[in-house]
Structure formats: structure tokens, C-alpha cells
## 1
Amino acid sequence: MGAKLRTIRRRIRSVQSTMKITRAMELIAASRILKARQRVEEARPFAERLTAAIADVSSAASGLAHPMLVERADRRTAGVFLVTSDRGLAGGYNANVLKRAEELFATLRAEGKEPKVFISGRKGVSSFRFRGRPIEDSWTGSSETPTYDLAKRIADALMERYVAGEIDEIHGVYTDFVTPIRQTAVAKRFVPLVVEAVARPVEGPTTQYEFEPEPEALLDALLPRYVETRVFSALLEAAAAEHAARRRAMSAATENAEELIKVLTRVANQARQTEITTEIIEIVGGAEALRTAAGE
């Protein structure tokens, strides 16, 4: 009985140590969510103004068939940029992104397009390598704190292959940060671009622009920046979602550890009570045997 009690107490100490780690990771992730959300909000105005500028230029050059705005007639390949995390312990964060990517792969293949994968994050790279699936290019080490320089390098790699004709479309698969409780894996097409509608006054005069240089030159300069912005936005959204997913996963782990400690403590108390009861019975039995021997 003593050995069993020692085993239970040793397990309780082990669970307590694990609980300290999960609680610390939960607090760290919670503190990083706010900063990650601020980065998302700070990057949004630039993306909105860039979108508005592209919409204005596109409307002024309505007859212009820019390669990044027009779908190719014979589309056989599609580049898929997948955003995962560098570290685990984030619940179903990476599994949901990979599942959404597989759904996109199935859709693309049904349309007669072969996907070529570009991955950000060690977890995605490990998953594809484990299954022996090809990866065109990968970037690791910055999933929690992505930089614009990283986004530019990724966008340049994607655009280089698009311009060279190696891929006919560019899609992004990442986790969209909705709330600290809800994150959704999404798939969006980056190229050919679909310029979002820009809110304009319903009444009043329409602003006319004169462009210098010509709209074609402006689009050549703006559209690559637009792709960089979309990639950067995906990285920022994914980083915020990763912190939120990790905080939720560590919170659940901490709660489970607390519940397990309660159960083990109850089992330890029962074992100790049984041990004490056995000792008392042995003492009483020994005393009764001595009394009986003395009476004889």
C-alpha cells in the first residue's frame, strides 16, 4: 500500500509541474493576443487605401487588360500559400488549416488545376514532408511575429512564378482571427485580383483623376504591393489566431490538470485511509493476541 501511495503522490507532483507550465503559456499567449490584434488593425488602413487606389486606377483604365486582373484562358496550375505555426500546443489550429487546404486542393483538381504548395510555418512543412508531398518553397521561424520583409519575400517568390507562367493563380489558406474565442480557417484567391468594391457617396459629383504616369504604369507598381499587403495581412491574421488558439488550448489543459489533481488527491486520501485502517487493525489484532496469551 505504501508503494501505491508514493506513486500517486509522485504523479500529483508531476501534474502540478505540468500545470504551472500550461498556466504560464496561457498567460504569455493572452498577453500577445492584444499586440497581435493591434498589428492587424494598424495594417488595415494601408490595405484599404491601396485597394481604393487600385480601384480608381482600374476604373480609369477600364479597357486595360492587365495580366494580374485578367484570368488566363488555359489555367493548369495554381499556387497555394499555406500559413501554419512554427510551434505546437495550439489545439486544432494547424489541423484546421491543413484540412481547409485539402478542401481547396480537391476543388482545384476538380477544375483541372494542379496545386503547387508554398508554406509558412514548421508544422505545415513537417506535415507535407511526413506524407512525402512536394513543397515549392517554405519559410519558417516567424509565425508568431511576422514582418513585412517576410511578406515581401513570400510575395516576390509567388509573383516570380506567376509572371514566369509556372502558376496561373495564387491562393492563400490561413486562419482568420474573428474573436479571441473564434478563429476560422479560410481560403482566398490573391491573383488574379478581384478588387473589392470601395464605398463611395451615393449622391454628389464623381471625382475625376488625371494619372501621371499612365494607368498601366501605375498598376504595374501598385499590384505587386497589393499582393504583398494581402500576404502580410494573412500572416498577421494567422499570428493573432495562433496566439488565441494556444491560449484556449493551454487554458483547457490547465483546467484538466486541476481536475486530475483533485481526482488523484482523492485517490491518495482513500489509499492513506485504507493504510491507516489496516495499521489500526493490525495493532488491535496484535494487542488482542498478547492479551489472550497473557490470560493463558
Note: The longest helix spans residues 215-295.
## 2
Amino acid sequence: MTATARQIEVPPSGQDLLQTDSLAAFCKAAGDPLRLEILRVLQHNAYGVLELSQLLDVKQSGMSHHLKVLASAGLVATRREGNTIFYRRAPQPIEPLLQELHRNLFATVDLIKLSAELQQRIHATNQERTKASRDFFEKNADRFHANQDLIASFTQYGEIITEFLDTSSVTKETVLEVGPGEGDFLPSLAQRFKRVIALDTSDEMLCRSRSITRDHQLDNVHFVHGDTAIAVEQQLTADCITLNMVLHHTPDPAQIFDDLAQLLKPGGVLLVTELCHHDQSWARESCGDLWLGFEPEDLSSWAATAGLEEGESLYLAQRNGFQIQLRQFFKH
């Protein structure tokens, strides 16, 4: 037999072995009903081990094991928020071999509707988060500005977000401000729009916003007590929505984007001012933060899932080590 006729066995390369190992880990992780259930729960939000254990009625040690398997397969990612580690769905893997499997797995599990009981548990967990944030603001209303100034006051970004607003071609009919706080932005909005809606879950904050409108004799500002889900139920619509330093106080940021996309009229713009992710955990106790900021790609992903198109972005570094992201999203 000639050398050309002989079959020569070529040993697999290191890259081939790595891809095979990754594929095996992926199949192992995806081959368990409970782990698929975890991925379904993590569709839009991040949860800690204890929260997931309670949601799915699994012992914490067992939940930790399943999360470790999912993490090893690149299906969940972790993020530390103070003393708690939160789990969320991982972004797409680098390996081209797994990218389509990754997308298809998430798309398939999302077709399976969560049971009514599990949806109720998720809702209750998010309500607990909302209550903790609301209670903080009700108890610390007098310290609102002092707490705000610890991180970033409105004066540090208000002028720039106003410039974003002025340079956009949005119709100046109705604007919705979610979480107006003490109402610092309301006078500027009232000058630029025929109708302003101020939406807040805190009665105390709404009272302080009303005081601002009285002081400035603004007669085109309307107040709604509730969250974005209430606004959707009331079928409110707006040409522009502003969300300034609010998202890190909300229990389910992805759901907020979904709600706001429903409230936004076609051609409308969503303006978001938010903290970039940081590790200063004292902000939880001092400022009532539920999340320690967000990565820019988090906001981009939630907006895209909600059907919004990304516009301009601007990032402002603060002297105290925080960084602010000013983001613009459109609905076509």
C-alpha cells in the first residue's frame, strides 16, 4: 500500500477537544428538567440562590449544585451585589459551535409557559423587592437629596438629559416621568410638553413633586400613584418617557422596559439615566438600591427584547468613583 493510499489518523486538536467538552457540558446542563425550569425563571430577571430555592421549592444545597452545572456550561452568569450573588442567563458563548444551540435552547424553553403557581411566586418575590424599596423612600424622604448626592445628584446630569431631549425630534405632546422623586425635572418637562404625567410608587415622593409644581405654578402636570404596570393597565401613552436613576430601585428591570415599550407611542423616545455597574455595596443601605448599577449591555438587551431601537449613549465619570450612563431608545 502506498503512502498516499494509507489512511492516516490525525489526533484531535486541543481546540477540537475543548469544543467537545463544551458540547458535553451543554448537553448535560440542558438534559435536566429542573435546570430548564431555572432557565425559564431567569428569562428576564436575576435571582439569588435563596430566592430560586424558594421559587422552585428546592433545597438551597441542591439549587447551588444545579446552578454550578449551568454555570459550567455557560448557560448562567453570576454577578455579586453586596453580599449576595445573583444568577442570570449568560450572554451568547464565544464558540460558534454553541451559539446556535444556546439561542435555540433559550428560545425553546421560553415557549413553555410558567405555571400559574410559579408566576405567583415570582410576582410575590418581586413585590417584596418593590416593598423594600418603597419603604426605604417613605422612611427617608427627608434625606432624599442627601442620599442622592452621595452618588449622583440631578444637577450632575439634568442639563445633559435635557439636551438629549431637545435634540430629539419627538412630538412634544405628552411626556411620562417614571419616579420623579422630588420633582426636579418636572419644570423643564412642563415647559417642553403640553402634558406631563408623573408616576411614582411612593406617596411621599409624589407629595414633594406636587410641591414643586405648586411653587412653579405648573398646571399641566398630572400625578399617578403606582408603578409601570399600573400605567399599562390605565392605558397611558406618551411621546416621551424619562427614567432618571430609577432602574436600580426596581425589582424587575427587564419588565420595566417591556412596560415602557407598551406605553411609548410609535416614533417616541425613552431617555434613561442610570448607574453603570459598581461594587460600592453601602449604596444598598444608605440609598435603598436594589441593584448596584447595570452594565450598558444589560440595558441594550432589555430594550431590544422590548422592541426598542438604541440611539445615542453618553457616559459620565463621577469624582466619587461612580459612572452614569445616559441612554436613548426609540420605538418605531
Note: The two ends are 68 Å apart (CA to CA).
## 3
Amino acid sequence: MTPEEVQEQIKGFRARYERIVMEIGKAMVGQQEIVEATLTAMLAGGHVLLEGVPGLGKTLLVKTLSQVLELPFQRIQFTPDLMPADILGTNIVSESEGGRRAFEFQKGPIFANLILADEINRATPKTQSALLEAMQERRVTAGGQTRPLPQPFFVLATQNPIEMEGTYPLPEAQVDRFYFKVLVEYPTQVEFAEILNRTTGSPIPEPQQVVNGEELLEMQRLAREVPIADHVQDYAIRLVMATHAGTSTAVPAANQFLRFGSSPRGAQTLVLAAKIRALLRDRYNVSFEDIRAVAMPALRHRLILNFEAQAEGVSSDEVLREILEAVPRDTQVAADKAKVQAAR
């Protein structure tokens, strides 16, 4: 592929991305970082967990995405009485014209390209775990058979903070399957004013569909082709290994505040998300800054805090900031630092 062809592909990638963002902006006010993080995860083929108090636009973002992307969409409202069969589907008895009866599988709402798992932490762990196979392997085993899910397939889940009444903590295995965990914050005063203008004034134009499933898959394929230098990939690996408390690669903050660190999925997320970030900034290579920029949403939900961190009110974001400060970018500096720690 010639440099000119590469540049043309990058321009096409950015053009599609900017069209998506423009249409989302018709419904969403502000929240640019959240929109970019959500789209980055989708372009990587991953799932997103949006966490924030009610009323901040989490559900609106996902519904708007369903309008902008030409993909079949299903919304699942998670409640304490929701059962796994309500998500996956179940066998029902059907009768033919000849009067013969047979079991027929009735597909659940999971058989769509874009799934909104609304208030996912209001369902019991048994129901939440029904998503495990679907999120990881893009297939569903139900009624004695394994059925593939349509591609592309995304789960965009919203949840209220865990400490709120009437919620259940997500199983660690399911949390790890989310590509990003994005924290939705309160809008600024200027954004508040714009929200009121849009919602209490004249109707605004509806977002239009701009990208279909095949175009989205094409963007995913291009993102994976972005090269990454060995020393930059090594930096991503060292960041993840620095979270492994009790090992020789752990930084002091991890040993002090973490029970468990990130899984290999964390390193995969760092590298692929950094590739997409590079493309969005008109570059066909990955920098250290790309890795650092995606570290928070990629790793915050993959760190398990210990009792000391919980007692002192230390968050996973605070631990990650210390890790980012402690892990040097240069491999030789990291090796020298490891020797010093070993000598002690």
C-alpha cells in the first residue's frame, strides 16, 4: 500500500468518525470525552460501561448512537425480576398447520447489533452473567444449541454508582469484558444552559443515520492495521504489569492499595484504543501519549482495591495516576529502576 493510499484511508476513517460525532451532537450537549471514548471502544469492537448518577445523558447517548448507526437496536431494561431467558430467549411450543407440536427457539433481544443494557446493576448477578458468553465470544448457548450473534455486536451498558440503594455489584468476570468504563460527570454551567435551551424550546433536528454495519467493520479493520513500535507496546505491557500487586514489576501504589491488577485484556485494550486515537489525530503510528490517554477508561475497572484503599477512600483512578507517574516510558530507565528495587 502506497503512502498516498494510506493517507486516503485515514481521511475516510476520520470523515466517517466526524459525521458520527456531528450527528450525536444534535442530541447530546458537551460530553465530548465520553462520546470519543464510547466511539473508540466501538471502533475497536468492544463494549462500554457508562457509570454515573441518573439524568446525565447515559441512556440518551446510546439511543442517539442507535439512530446514527444503521444497526438493529434493542433496549433491555434491567430490573431485579429480569431472568436470563428474558435476554437470551427460550424454547416455546409451536403448532404446525397439521396439528403437530414442536419446540421452537424464540430469540431474545440479545440478537441485535447494538444492545442497550440500561441500569445493568439493578439485575441480580445470575441475570447479569447471562451476558458473559455473548460479550466475549459473540454467541449464545440456549435451548441446547449455540447460536452466533450478528456482527458487529456491541453492548453499551449504563449503571448507577455501586453504593446507591437497590443495586448489585457486577461480577468481576463481566466487568473485565467491558472494553472501557467511562465515568459520566455533571455538565458545566454553559452546558446546563444549552441543555435547557434544547429541551424546553423548539424541537431540534433528529440525528440521521450516517454509517452502516459494513462501514463500521471496515473502520475496525483499518484500526487494527495501524503499526505500533516495540518500545511503545512495551510501555503498555509495563503499565499493566505495574498493577500486579506482590510481583517484582508492581509499583509501590499497587502493592499498597490493590488486591489484583489488570488482566491481559487491559494490555490489548491499551494498544488497540491507542491505535484508534492515533488515527483520529491524523497519524498512522502510536505514541506514548496515545497509550497514556486511554489508560483511565481501559484499566480503572480492571483494578481490584484492597481493604486499605477502601478504608482510606482511595479510588482506582488515583492508583492509576500514581502508576502512570511511576512507570517510565524509556525501557532502559525501567530496567535500571528494577535493578535498584531488586538490590533493596
Note: The mean pLDDT is 85.
## 4
Amino acid sequence: MVVCRNSLISRAFTLIELLVVIAIIAVLAAILFPVFAQAKASAQSATCLSNMRQLGTAFSVYLGDSDGVYAAPYGNRYPNSAWVLSGNSPLVGTTSPPCPNANDTTDICNVADPTRGSLWPYTMSEKIYKCPTEDSGLDHSSGNPVSTLNQRITTTMNGNFATEKIPLNDGGIGTLAISESVITFPSATFMLVDEDVTSRNDGKFVPSTGETDVFGTQHHNGGNLVNADTSGKWYSALSFKFKSPMWTKFIPTRLVP
């Protein structure tokens, strides 16, 4: 039997063929990498929304133990009822990430301590106070660089959930939270906000200012919000433009849903 010698020799790739293969791989990578990045971002947004809903559920349990009164959105003057202890409270001290000045009320790296807030016994997990998405920017107050990495919370509470102001023994003014009965439409009243990294300096979001507290848009140019009934969803940055109709959903006692 005669065997052809050439059939036993493997044919090597030419340089042009190798370049073609590399080019095809590069094109596929260019197509797939953005898809993978988008899938990762979608997963992070979904995790963030899930975390915020867990916080909403904790609020529901808290209401049952507090005669229907919410935890306060902030606690720099009335810390015993604050859902998270505001970063500018002297009671936080060294429990927050290191700051140039631990008593600086505008230093955004000193933003809120969830473990010392009134909601903590109902959550017991610091992870659910924070979205997995990493973002950064400049602090609106000081102009200093700030990153999610040095912030303990990314979710903040509607500042309109505080109503009464009471005088304190030291001459300051304390705040109390609203009652559950005040909220006319819980399924259409924003309670928790995915606030922008550049404006987080305490545990509250003040919708009346617009330029000071900024809606977070780190999830596909949008962010998550959770209502008083613990329902929630993603909203685009465009729909959340300051003074748009969506801002009325921050008012617990409005007349229409």
C-alpha cells in the first residue's frame, strides 16, 4: 500500500490566516464586551433595588413596634429615632470612615452609620444599605473627590418623612418622624432614594432643594426608588428632572396619587 507523504504532514497557518483569525476575535470581543458590561450593570441595579426593598420591609416591621411612627430620616439633632445615624452627628465619632475632620458637617466621607440607627435591629446587615455599583465624583459641599468605596450607605430616606421640630435641652432643634397614617397613598409616595454619590452627606434626601440633594443615575443613566408600601422600580434621569411631576411623589400628604 502506498501512502501519500503529503497527507501525513499538517498544514501550518499562514500569517494572513492568523491575522484574519485575530481580527475576527477582536470584532467578537468588541461586540460582546459591551453586552457583558450591560448585563453586569443590570444585575447590579437589580441587586440594588432588592436591597432597598429589604430596607422597606424592615421599615414595615419597625412600624409595628413603634405604634405606626416611622424612623426619622436624619438624626443629627434627634439621634434616638434616626433610621441611620447621620454622619455629621458627634455621636458617630470614629465609627465612620476616616475624614480630615471628624466633626466637619460637610465632609461627605463621614456619611451616616447604619449600625447605630433605629432600623439596624430589623436589618442586621450593612450590605443592604449599599448598592454594589461603584461611582465617584466631587462632593457638592466641599468640592473634594468622593467615592462609593468610602461611604457606608448609598440609599437615603425621603426628608419629608420628618415633620415635628422640638426644642432640646442644649438649645438645638430636634426632629420627629411622621406617622404611617399621614401617608395618603403609600404605593405612590417615595420613601427610599438611590441618591447620587456627590450629595450623600447624611441619611436623608431633601427633594425640595433639587440642586443640593441629587438623584442617583448610576444605573443605566437612572436609579431606583422604593415607595412607602415597599414597592419600587427603576426611573430614568430624564423622568426625574427637578420639579417634574415625579417630585410630587415625595409629599406624603398630597391629594392625588
Note: The helical segments are 15-65.
